[in-house]
Amino acid sequence: MRNPYDVLGVPRTADAAAIKGAFRKLAKKLHPDANKDDPKSAKRFAEVNTAYEILGDEKKRKAFDRGEIDAEGKPRFHGFEGFGGHPGGFPGGGAGAGPGGAHFESFSFGPEGFRRAGGAGAGGPRGFGGFEDLLKDVFGGAAAGRRGGFAGGSHFEPEDLHPQPPGRDVEVAVTISLAEAAQGGTRRVHLPTGKEVEVKIPPGLADGQQIRLKGQGLPGPGAVGDALITVSIAPHPVFERDGANLRLDLPVTLYEAVLGGKVRVPTLDGAVELAIPPGTSSGRTFRLKGKGLPAKGGPGDLLASVRIVLPPEGDPELDDLMRHWRDARPYDPRRDLT
User: Fold this and answer.
1) Which CATH superfamily is domain 170-233 in?
2) Is 35 or 217 the better-scoring residue by pLDDT?
3) 188: β partners
């Protein structure tokens, strides 16, 4: 996975608005619905979504910048800090300890398990005397307890190093598009067991919901675990989820807002026509019934909020009209704010 800043094409100093703008531009360009004949675009779209999941979240972005998570959002392993507070060392000075009576002990492994070749003070607080406790920490107390511990001549059984729990579950994270969440579909998922399975995505799946695949986990002595597929829904370049409802900003021209007219509004099922009444102000919200996401109580709605957009280039005639209007028909839309 590439650096998320490189994926979105923004510098590390970019603010949240610049990151969101870059994501929306790329997501709209690479969305699978607009690139059905280009299989590479789906991979790039997923990469862009993953990058935005990190950089669009303030906490995750800071964690990535500090090197705490990688480009996929997974925690990085920074290594051990050493034993006894000395990086790379052992308790009380251990291997390579300096002056002050520190000593080395050697260990061998044979039919009788681990054996200590005693140096002076073997088992003492300095040197390598805490080896039994170290093994207990690493492998768990059960590994030592089954044989009465490591002290007193008891031995360490190699088969206890990797105990097999009965039927362990495995977890996999999958990101789907908003359209897949609404309409359902199938996804091929690679499991930690090495298997590749086809997962059915039911319509109306919520963000963070899990799908359980029985018997697709790790085997144990008497059972096989399950695979738990945690589903995340990727941000959409146009729609924002609000429970079962969807929201979008609907750009309209100045003359459409003043005079009214019919405009095309995108939905997950295709575009529909919406009648804008004359004198519509920016911010007015229209509800399109049943055009949201599937839900138990019935589908949600699409909430389209009007945003008046002026011409991209200046217009002298419009400027003259506005000056005349300002002087002849002044009004104060902010009178209720004072």
Assistant:
1) Urease metallochaperone UreE, N-terminal domain (2.60.260.20)
2) 217
3) 198
